[in-house]
Input
Amino acid sequence: MLPTSISSMKSLIFPPFSPLSLHFPKTKPFAFFSLPSKTPNVSYPKFLHVNPSMPSPRPPIFSIPIRQSHIETPQSSSLCGEVHVIVGPMFAGKTTTLLHRIQAESNNGRTVAVIKSNKDTRYGLDSIVTHDGMKLPCWALASLSSFRLKIGPDAYDQLDVIGIDEAQFFEDLYDFCCEAADHDGKTVIVAGLDGDYLRRSFGSVLNIIPLANSVTKITARCELCRKRAFFTLRKTDETETELIGGAEVYMPVCRQHYVDGQVVIGAARSVLESKKLQCGTCT
Ligand SMILES: Nc1ncnc2c1ncn2[C@@H]1O[C@H](COP(=O)(O)OP(=O)(O)O)[C@@H](O)[C@H]1O
Ligand SMILES: Cc1cn([C@H]2C[C@H](O)[C@@H](COP(=O)(O)O)O2)c(=O)[nH]c1=O
Ligand SMILES: [Zn+2]
Output
């Protein structure tokens, strides 16, 4: 028997919720299923280079899988996709984790494609490369909305899994994930920075958390004390939010060293500014 408050409610959904559907969402656990591979002519990335001496990525320290159930219904099994989000500071292993998940999906016979932002030109535009040198061919795009046309609508329809790296640079991330997972039935695996060098929310990455089946925050090692690093410190005095770079510009730091670093950088900046004011030749 349902509680009165629920049973007396008029359902706007047909058929109305059963008590079972209230308690057990009809989602599938990540990587628990394998769809048959569809056509052989779809581009099917393989790892070009996996360094065998590379340690496997550190386990996430913070993972919130949204409650899932093994109960499936026939009508939910084909259409609904999934969204999985991997965040953390630079050098935490986001790209490594994304590539491992994509490789696992591909090994399960699922058709995969990976997208990165064309703003990140660090290693050329044709591949995603981790800080360790692991590499996977990708689509480098200015916007996610261009993906379907770029890959071709037929190839898009054949895709099971879409990986997105450097997600902070895509303005249309929310709309793309919604459409791909809810409407097109794709599994979307997103990797990106949750925060910028000032620890402000970066791009649309945090906006897609309400869409996600799972959210995983991973950490790096603080470059100064080797403790867990949750943040990215910018070592230079540039102030624009988007500034492409690697270890020459950024370092992963723990909370203490982030705070100390901001104080040191702030002090250095004010010294430089006061020197500029005193110097007659500087403008
Ligand atoms: N300061 C650093 N400079 C270069 N490589 C680093 C540094 N710190 C960690 N790494 C390496 O980078 C790997 C993570 O690379 P990657 O997956 O590309 O990270 P992310 O995508 O989170 O930036 C780590 O496992 C580590 O081996
Ligand atoms: C913190 C921060 C980073 N970026 C840039 C720097 C890199 O090009 C990417 C992050 O790459 P990774 O795969 O996570 O190592 O983002 C930026 O533009 N602004 C920032 O504040
Ligand atoms: Zn530290």
